Amino acid sequence: MTPLLPKRMIEVEIDGTPVRVFEGQTLLDACRKVGVDTPTLCYGDTLEPKNACRVCVVEVEGARVLAPSCSRKAEAGMKVRTDSDRVRHSRRMVMELLTSSVDLSTTPDAAGYAERYDARPDRYGPAAAPNPDRDRLRAGHHVEPDGDTAATVASALKDDNELYVRDYGKCILCYKCVDACGSQHQNTFAISIAGRGFDARISTEHAIELPESACVYCGNCIQVCPTGALMFRSEHEHRAAGTWDEAAQTVTKTICPYCGVGCNVELHVQHNEIVKVTSPADHDVTRGNLCIKGRFGFQHVQRR
Amino acid sequence: MFGAGGGTSSYEEIEHTDVVLLWGSNARNAHPIFFHHLLKGVHNGARLYVVDPRRTESAAWADGWLGLDVGSDVALSHTMAREIIAAGLHNETFVRRATSGFDEYRAHVEPFTLEEGERITGVPAAMIREAAHAFAKADRAMICWTLGITEHHNGVDNVLSLINLGLLCGHVGRYGSGLNPLRGQNNVQGGGDMGAIPNKLSGFQDIESDHEARGRFEAAWDTTIRPTHGWHLTQMFHAMETGELRTLYVIGENPAQSEADINRTRRLLADLDFMVVQDLFLTRTAELADVVLPGSASWCETEGTVTNSERRVQRVRKALDPPGDARDDMWILAEIARRLGHDWGHPTSEQVWDELRSLSPMHAGMRYDRLEALGGIQWPCPDEHHPGSPILHERLWLDPVEGMLAPFSPTVDQRPFEALDDTYPIRLTTGRRLESYNTGAQTGRYSSPLHRGESLDLSPEDATSLGVVDGEVVRVSSRRGAVEAPVRVDEALRAGLAFMTFHFPDEVDVNQLTIDATDPRSGTAEFKACAIRVDRINVLAATGD
Fold first, then answer.
1. Does domain B426-540 have CATH number 3.40.50.2000?
2. Which among A79, A225, B200, B438 is least surrounded, fewest beta carbons within 10 Å?
């Protein structure tokens, strides 16, 4: 396989508007090309689409079920509706179920989606008390909900190392961190899914603390996390202190100072202090990834 | 390679190659994001062979591990070549059309049978044969190497012997086939490209033999350039010893902790008449200086460019103001020039770069806005419509071949400079860890769960025969110095081989042990091989209990 093979163009119809995309592109690509604003939560540029959150579903004429636009490949002649009652209803339910069970306070766009689709999560009742044993729940031992309160994924903040914190009460279980840690990027396999159904959660083996696990602190899981469940310690502390101010931040793209690979880093700077490091998804060298040095090894310019 | 010092491939190609020889490189830890690309290749079906005395984290991903004795790389390469030729697997057409010196090369490697190779290198003959056949039979194959190849007193021969292997099988100059040194620092490639080496002007233009190029620099700078090679680092230290070099200006380097045989280095630095150090920190080297100039972090406090291991020139940008009285390095240099009577003004980094582009043909097309728009450009890029060069030496596949033929180079099989004996019976090799970097001037300033101090990593066999246990502090001695360090038993090491880093020189000064036997051509010291002894001193490391 050599790069830059020619690709066929195919035509699909989005809400009645014809649009041509490359063979292999998705319905989401087609929607974006005609300017249809399609909500996404678990979709990320650097990973295979996970189809987990289902908020991007669209209606394909002739298909029995709704299709996740982030992964469904466009086929010639497809007629797609993105704002039908069925689509709106489905997106509304996704936002209601997520909003009622997950803390989406640091998920960009979540509140906007909920409003756009008139989600009313309160109709599931008040939040149930957090289950303190959530990390130890095993498949087949699920406790039935009482029907009056809304079960949640709330769990204690995991604060066990100097570099990043994990707040799985904010996790929508899109599994992107597992993919990034696993065979798609980092190949470290420090985390996976534990439990089944509503009890499923991201976990190290036997829920051991990160310093005891295989984690190498590349932070590539933080990079792909769409909800802020995984967060730089610096961002977490600024938010806790009420001093996190994205409007005051600059983002500067530069090159990591360490080895000769030449990874692109984006320095998020607030008041002359690096508060977060990301990596551009669209650069061929890094594809959104870094190692521990590139992600966290910036303290030597932070002693002001 | 064949005149231009740079890797021949792009990272992306390794995702679509068939066989990778990773030689003297623990890229999993030392070049982690390159290893991401390599693992995509492995997941796509490429076979990986790792050549390393240690069974490293990289070797854990390999189809085959060639655990050779330290410093037997040339012998291993010769043995593979001999086996490939004997089996009729070399690329006869490529060798005939695009190379020179094959007959001499074949005669030279002829004595290195599989049995002889096993005897010299310690790698089982069957393993050598498997790797050789896989490499030779592959449609596409790459050799990637790092300091395990170059940090030897015969490092240049090591590199040339790998290039010979690539030429033998036609694995260079094509998509997915190439010869790639992975650079250890974010601009070691760019430093050479810019002419910060003793024998070349910017763009690898020879200062002695390329009169036309030298003339262009003289015209641009309105000065005369002496047509003689300068000194490389090792020659500088030699010149300090003989008294020829009395003044030193050190920018962003910490030789008082990074050089081999560090006691000698410190003595020579301390004896200088005058030394200026320009750095972010008051390093051990800066402590020895007469003048210290606080510079700025070249990756986030200034503007400029760096060049990576796939020859990609990329822009670095200012994100932070430097602290206190620290100044941009270019500002400092221009001010020193002014006070020496040469007013350069204070050019922007882009103006400096544009001058470079006017003098270095391989950079000519790399306007700043193009570097920005294209996410960096790989040299050579001779004009402003050129997209850059993902692959080098494609000319070797043209009909007829363009330019000079690629020569097989004669290389000599040698052992490490310092042999083992009864007094110093253990081979020490040094290297890097994932979370730390060189002397730790930067990585010593953040903490992580991966950070742990220096240790003497020993094989389980040696730990048993010495009667030492994990965590026990021992004395490690070579002919040049001695340090104390806690033992860490590591099953990745074979009997007789020990490993240390040099990331924590303030606590354990490992380069007191290393030897400054250097390759006369590259000037690189043999950090990878010295002889040590280990003695018990009956101390347990502090555990914090």
1. no
2. A79
